[in-house]
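User: Run a structure prediction on this.
Assistant: Running it now.
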Amino acid sequence: MELATKYAPEAVEGKWYNYWLNHKLFSSKPDSREPYTIVIPPPNVTGVLHMGHMLNNTIQDILVRRARMEGKNACWVPGTDHASIATEAKVVNKLAQQGIRKMDLTREEFLKHAWEWTEEHGGIILKQLRRLGASCDWDRTAFTMDETRSKSVLKVFVDLYNKGLIYRGLRMVNWDPKAQTALSNEEVIYREEKSKLYYLKYYVAEDTGATTGVEGEVIHQDAKGRYAVVATTRPETIMGDTAMCINPKDPKNGWLKGQKVIVPLVGRVVPVIEDRYVDIEFGTGCLKVTPAHDVNDYNLGRTHNLETIDIFNANGTLSEAAGMYVGQDRMEVRKQIAIDLEAAGLLEKVEDYDNKVGYSERNADTAVEPRLCMQWYLSMQHFADIALPPVMNDELKFYPAKYKNTYNNWLSNIQDWCISRQLWWGHRIPAYYLSAPNAEVEEFVVAETAEEALRLAKEKTGNDNLTLADLRQDEAALDTWFSSWLWPISLFDGINHPDSEELAYYYPTSDLVTGPDIIFFWVARMIMAGYEYTGKMPFRNVYFTGIVRDKLGRKMSKSLGNSPDPLDLIDKFGADGVRMGMMLSAPAGNDILFDESLCEQGRNFCNKIWNAFRLVQGWEVSDTLAQPETSRLAIEWFGAQLRKSAAEMADLFSKYRLSEALMEVYRLFWDEFSSWYLEMVKPAYQQPIDRTSYAATIGFFNDLLHLLHPFMPFISEELWQHIEERKEGESIMVSPQDIAAPRSEDAALIADIERVKGIVTGVRAARAQKNISPREALPLTIVGENELSAYDTLVKKMATISEIATATEANGAGYSTFLVGTTQYALYLGDVVDLEAEKEAARAELDHLRKFLKSIQGKLANERFVSGAPESVVAMERKKEADTLAKIAALEAKL
């Protein structure tokens, strides 16, 4: 069947994707083959496809498709994450548009809305991935809150609690006032901000001290009396102050020892305490202590037995405990209190100040608030101890390896993980209380089910009359990452059924492809869970992608408006074009500077492949024609080049240098196959090609399509299906790549043809310079021995040479000379040459080369350069000198 004149992705992509689906070519079941397993980093159920997803899933698809062609049983498991904070926020917003407030609903009513929203939007991103060509086993699609995964999460929680690794405690946490939930340390993003430093007056209470102090002391005084100055970025928290702290070694504040001061505006009298924690150099050396709203102040409060006053509501407004500004937002209070302090004469000055402010990873516009509250924690030291050695010993490998240091730093300074979230959407914590809320002592049991909790409660209390109505389940949900850290195990139901056939076959998985921004959130924790629950690593290799940025280096985001819609790109350039555009700029671990022109380059490459196939398909084939020597040489050479490139690509794949592997096959197809090989074997105009050469060419096309397929699945499938009649259900995707290993003689043959190409290029350049038709046959003279005589037929065909001769020299009128390596070639152009113009050009070039030589020799005569520069740099300069001397000699001979 003839191909269309132009490649039309829209006519190809949907057709073949449905073909792959209909014939279950993505599906995998355990069998005797070697397994190759990838689990998808589950995108948020709220999400739609963005450029980061495009990159990540393109890489996964490349690895999976290559594994299939290697004969492995490839299994790519898709799924989505329930994304507690993000999804709950979406549902709350949707309900608000309908005039419904979350607080007016019961938990069950809210969850009904959340499930409806999930069922409506949850599959969008996975459907979009199909447009990219993602070859996931869609029958295995999982969700972190489906029955299997949910049961796994609860089972693990109970197990870790029973092991003493999960505990409940009153701690200072990072609080998201918008989502009204605790966050882990890893969910806080710190940003540099232009802030203000407010200098507040704390007057000494019942002051009878001297107005002058000992040497070094700095005493502030006005008509109202002596006062200390406290510098703070958060004046809105003074209502929670319960002390002022100085460093006992600070001479300037020694006069404050033993004193009490009055909190400005508030009027509360608080003690001055001493602690070496205080930085003498920051501000005035006086620190306001607000134990309920700063983690360091909280620690000071515990050390010095200070009162803790929580002045904020969960939503970031001031509470009744503040006694002032009640119900107002904390950020608005900051502005107002500065005005009120100044009006009361309690604000000494305000300075500009740069500091880091923590923001919620999920609500980028919400500053995190330190908050003291009861939460659930997972002890992490045990997990760090089991997860650090395998990575540092390269049993589990990171690509690039530089991320081992990041991993090591985090695990070496591990902190306990706050795993509870004050949300309804998520896995509800399986703790059941026997006491009323906020009781002084809260008795509870932990169990996978309410029925099991009742049994444990009866056992704990000795009261057989207890009923389910006497138990109250914890209102909090688990951190989303507490489900996804089990992902490689729970996808094969390995928590509930650790002896399952699927877990034994597919686990450990092969490769994980993810971004370095979730190395702590997810990668490290999956490694921990893997060793804890299977005794094995969850994956053998981790490939860290970079961040997709625009061509100016800015991170792509909706707010900047610099992120293209991936589906629009696919509509414009085709999926293969976009995949290639992404991968051309995607070295492992380094940020990707994405430019739409790369997708255009990908589309152009598709057109090149298409047109090359149409050219070959259009040749008339003769069964009686003998194979020309030129075609025989071309086939031998390209076979060697193909074997070399396939081996190099295999090596690059083994090192996860996928962009370089793509560039290798791109160069092989565009430069070697299209630009040289096809020209070498192409029959004369309106003449047939011999059957042997045609069969070899089609064979090479088949091999090239196999090398291209992981990167460009659609066009490679379309053309492979056109190579010959295929049976229904056959696909290049499961057709083995059959390219032999390089042979010992390949390198010499490739080197010889490189020199032949140099001769052809030199002849063509000489013709172009003199505007001589490429069809006019001209004689070529080699100055010296013809070391490439075995390839004369190729040179004659490719360069339109009438004869090739050798001579001791070939200068004078009518010759145009050039060098290939150190061999001089002379093309006789006849009377078309302007001898004087040639001489003038040669003299000018000679003059230029002599000046260049002088500068090189000046460098090499400089002892400091020769002894101080790297050996490779000096060697390069010596090579430049030798090459320039050879060119000068050739030009002098020519003149």
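The chain has a mean pLDDT of 92.
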